[in-house]
Amino acid sequence: MKEFLIHSKRCFIDNQFIEATLHIKNQKINDVFKGVFQADEIECLDVNDSIVIPGIIDAHVHINEPGRTHWEGFETATKSAALGGVTTLIEMPLNANPVTTNSDAFKIKQVAAKNKLNVNCGFYGGIIPGSENDIEGLIKAGVFGIKGFLTHSGIDEFPNVTRKELEKIAPILKKYNCPLLLHCELTDDDVPKVINPKSYQEYLKSRPQHWETNAIDLALDIQKKFDIKVHVVHLSASEGIDQIKKRKSVTDNLTVETCAHYLYFNAEEIPDASPIYKCAPPIREKQNNDLLWEYLLNDGFNFLSSDHSPAPPEIKKLEEGNLFDAWGGIAGLQFTLPVIWTEGQKRGLSLEKLIPLLTLNPATFLGLDERKGKIKKGYDADITIWDENIEFTVVENMIAHKHKATPYLGHKLKGKIIHTFVNGVHVVENGELENRNAGELLLKG
Predict the structure, then answer these.
(1) Number of helical H runs and strand E runs in the chain
(2) Diameter of the chain by CA atoms?
(3) Domain spanning 4-52+381-403+416-433: which CATH class is it, in words?
(4) How many CA atoms lie within 13 A of 233 on its CB side?
(5) Among residues 301, 230, 231, 214, which one has the least CA distance to residue 263?
(6) How many CB atoms neighbour CB 384 within 10 A?
(7) Cα distance between residue 213 and residue 227, in whole Å
(8) Among residues 217, 305, 340, 381, which one has the fewest Cβ atoms lying within 10 Å of its Cβ?
């Protein structure tokens, strides 16, 4: 592995920016020198004023391979991740087929990922009715957590669980200190009748905030009863913040994330017949999303993610415009950092607050913070270099996702990724993918 130096006037080290030179050797950050360090025999990449940060970690991604590789696959997903400065991602147990609900399916997924990883990739296992006895095997095999849905997931192979299944697996999760990740929506009939399936406002009203808050109540009750780690994925309902804050004040075993699209888009701006914006839970009104931002700025969210969940245009119903029949998921893995930074600047978000939400905090959640999430001697040489002032417009030919349909298309964003290093390999150079297959398959423990 080549040895080299990286110098910047703005390296993010110990939550502050300093001038530093990084010595990269054997896939690791071999040393960190304050200021300028030169060695005649070692090549140096001097990025001047560009920001050097730990590689971004996206702990919520749907890649869909095997079985639905025509939706997305490891090659395209990890390419788009690298171009977006993401050096590590964790893949959800759906929407691959087979779903990752037992160790045999987990082995199949690992084989499918072989020689296709442009960034590091780990996996979650899943809980569905009838798979309770498979959870311990998944944990021993190296998954980073167990994911369950409290409402229909969108695919029949991954049905929702109830309190019954969660209580059955809770002692196993406690034994291994393994987090339970929950999609928090509990459906009921307290919703309006659908009149116009192309209306975004009708879709929004069909998945009300109380679906989320009722599910969060169930999740918090399980957490309290068994004292296990519970993680609320993709919070979109601001009405859930108070109950989460109250429980977090008495336990460290509750965490919560939100996603870029909930922070960037508002329901009032979404046109009808545009399933490209459909996700579940839905993108809500500006007043709601302002409260999500307030919670973020007050250190409420543990980390931020993309919840990248793409699908082919025909499954997204892009031509028909039927929001109720369309697949629900946002394709945005490549743009998480600039999307959040673009909106965050308008709201007083500092780089010092943003960067840990995308690096150290998800590393800590995943138990990877002894090797990832920091620029520190001995840590993995996963490094992202970007310029927070460069603006660019999202156009189709820059999108590396398998399908180019994304609600960010045409938007002007701020914050361009210039270089990405994965395990010491210069994967993205001057915004272009130059080296492939530098990622490693990650197993917990």
Answers:
(1) 13, 18
(2) 72
(3) mainly beta
(4) 25
(5) 301
(6) 27
(7) 20
(8) 217
Which tokens hold the place of 192? 């309006």
Could you tell me which of 276, 256, 266, 412 has the C-alpha nearest to residue 345?
412
- CATH 3.20.20.140 in the chain is located at 55-366
Residue 139 and residue 84 in contact, taking contact as beta carbons nearer than 8 Å: no
Nearest to 53 by CA among 387, 370, 300: 387
55-366: CATH superfamily: Metal-dependent hydrolases (3.20.20.140)
β-partners of residue 122 are 90
pLDDT bin (cut points 50, 70, 90) of residue 207 is very high
- Could you tell me if 326 and 273 are in contact, meaning their C-beta atoms sit under 8 angstroms apart? no
| SS3 track for 283-348 | CCCHHHHHHHHHHHHCCCCCEEECCECCCCHHHHCCCCCCCCCCCCCECCHHHHHHHHHHHHHHCC
User: What is the residue whose two structure tokens read 């300028």?
Assistant: 36
Site of tokens 């919070």: 235
> Under 8 Å CB-to-CB from 146, ≥6 apart: which residues?
124, 125, 126, 127, 135, 138, 139, 169, 173, 178, 179, 180, 181
Does residue 209 register a pLDDT over 90? yes
Residue 54 pairs with which residues in a beta bridge?
Answer: 383
| Residue 438: other Cβ atoms inside 10 A | 22
- 420 three-class SS: strand
Q: Tokens representing 153?
A: 């997931």
